[in-house]
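Section 3.1: Structural characterization of target chains.
Under the original work plan, the team committed to producing a structural model for every single-chain target entering the pipeline before any wet-lab resources were allocated. The record below documents one such target. The sequence was received from the expression subgroup and is listed exactly as submitted; it comprises 455 residues.
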Amino acid sequence: MTTTPTVTLTTTDDDDDDLPFPRFYPIGTPGQPWTQKEDDEWKKTVPKFQRSYQEQVLDPLQAFAEHANDWAVVEQYGTLSYHDFGKDDNDHDNDDAVLLQYPLMAVRNKHWHSQQQQQQQQCVNVLITGGVHGYETSGVQGALLFLQTKAEQYTTTHNNNNNNNNLLNWVVIPCVSPWSYEHVQRWQAQMMDPNRSFFPNDPAHQTPESRALMEYLFQTLPQQQQQPQKVVVVKPDDDSKADQKNSHDEDNNDTNTNKPTIAWTCHLDLHETTDSDETEFRPAKFARAGLPYRRNRIPDGFYLVGNSGAVVARRRDDNNENENNQTAKEQQQQQQQQFQQQTMQFLEAILTQVETVTHIAPTDEHGNLALAMRAVARGICAVPMAYLGLCGGVTGAPLVATTEVYPDSTGTTTTVTPEICNQAQVAAVTGALDYILLLLVSTTRMAGNNQADEF
């Protein structure tokens, strides 16, 4: 298993009594945001190379393309170019940084269902993304494993049988952030979090990774394909509008060239929650912002993050000693009401399938999952994805889930291995697709309007 690089905390000559809060990260001064000096200091801690994107992602995709040529298309949607930095294999500073170039790859079903082909049958579009956070290994390898072992089952067959697999158009992006994958980092090379950068209307807060993917989804792919017939699923009222705006652009209008022109039904974004989140990545994030850091609990098991569409995920303030338990219960009930029954069934269907592979994370004594987010159901919490610039909110799909696999689980009856983590991601994808197919088969017509989120 690839280990996450960490920065070793060493003693300093600083007088901690004069600091606004205790030092929790070796770079920078507590209470002061980092400058270029601290950024450069952090970059020198990053190992030059941890694993190969070419060997672990591009080569398997090449082999897959040769095997699946009849039913799948592997295509490049962009290129990332970064100068490498950090330390080389001998722990020497990398003064002669080389230019690294990463092809960005997408895979989709070859026979995309056009609008004309769907006059007699409903069809939906599904997006699966992995490696938005490159250090989360099973997001990438799980996406590849789905392609290698399951994707053909959800692809149009070439016989005369009228089976349910004709109902899906799917796109898989195995690795959104290849530099982060190779260097086992949460940030990308510009020290930005790709999963806080999916703002279609705000280039200043995008990363090259998010910009390339949005251009593919909103411009390249729609030009290649005819838009399929729309089938409507209505979300809660405050969801349908909140997801159309992001926190950085209040002027979201119809003339925006990044407005989605393919109606997506479902988006699965494959992630992990690791112990290194609390030992390295979140401490670095808070230190860079000059903020105090308080360690959070890592849930022991798999869980899902759904899209609330509004700020409903409750964050517990441990300093509030006057918290009213009845108020907390009412807030939890309000959260549950935010989820339309159909959306909850979708998320629960995913968990049912995943539970055949690995265990579901329990809540803590306060009913919270990760980052003090209150669970709205077993193994499920919610955040406003589009508002936060998360990848899961970029399409506006009504059925959205971010998977969170826990690869560092201990004390369970079943040892969690990298293989189990990958299989759990595949189970999440197949659970979601099976639910959508069942929903379409059992539904003759779904009413709605253009204001609702559409299939």
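The chain is about 30% helix and 15% strand.
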